[in-house]
Amino acid sequence: MLAPAILVLAAVSVIPFVSLIVMSFSHVRLLGGVTLTPAGLENWTTVFGDPATWASWLRTLEFFVLAVGSEMALGFGVALILNALRRSRTIVFSITLLPMFLAPITVGLLGNFLLDPTIGLYSWLLRSVGLLAPNHGLLGQRETSMVAIAALDAWEWTPLIALIILAGLTSINPSVLEAASLDGAGFTRTITSVVLPSIAPILLVALLVRSMDAIRYFDIVQITTGGGPASSTWMISQQLQQKVQATSLDGVTTLIGQASVIGITMIAFSTIIANLFVRLLSKRERDR
């Protein structure tokens, strides 16, 4: 009975992954059909010896900290507000969730429009208060481009974090909060001593979900900055795409082998993060 399901699983996951490993040790030619020739460790040594690849990983880490950090903080705040609402919660909740239903390409195009140095609303507002020089845009400056990209991602996905955390907040027993109040615990003490420990597993799940997306972030960067200016938003996904589309000096052999190496490292990094979160969740369950 399980054989068909196992075959489907192998077709959609195992076989492509094995193919990725094979290509990482091969020179790949596409002219006249796909041809693989052994390359040994050449692709691996080239990728791991490439400063541009390491730089793209560092920028990915920078984006990860900015975007996921702000989403977790803002999502927690939004969830607290929604949880405190007694009237119009459904309406406010529905409006709050709207950004996450937009396609990334739509968010990118909207970001281009709102942050345009000439006609962008946000650019005009920042210039009005003296935070942005004339004819300068947030997406066009090395110092602000990554922050702008992270802000667009936070705008789109903070509602998802808020939704996950709100589910955790509603599961807290009201009697626990009442007991904390009777003991004289203020708002801050209640949050740090009661709420956060109670929803810690939920926070880990939310962090895991966004971490997986942040590592392979591509769409909005490609639409808004294309990895620029001066490679300031060039992340590992852009590096992967460049390798897929490029050829070696002979003009025939592709760099798909090097792209496969990058893809494998991304999978490995994602797996390590996922296992870390699973271990943290398991440890917390054992300690309870």
Automatic annotation (TrEMBL):
Residues 57-277 form the ABC transmembrane type-1 domain. PROSITE patterns: ABC_TM1. GO terms for biological process: transmembrane transport. It comes from the Bacteria. Pfam families: BPD_transp_1. It is found in: Cell membrane. GO terms for cellular component: plasma membrane. InterPro entries: MetI-like, MetI-like_sf. The chain crosses the membrane at residues 7-28, 63-85, 92-115, 146-170, 190-209, 256-278. It is a multi-pass membrane protein. Keywords: Cell membrane, Membrane, Transmembrane, Transmembrane helix, Transport. Belongs to the binding-protein-dependent transport system permease family. This is Sugar ABC transporter permease. It comes from Galbitalea soli. The lineage of its organism: Bacteria, Bacillati, Actinomycetota, Actinomycetes, Micrococcales.
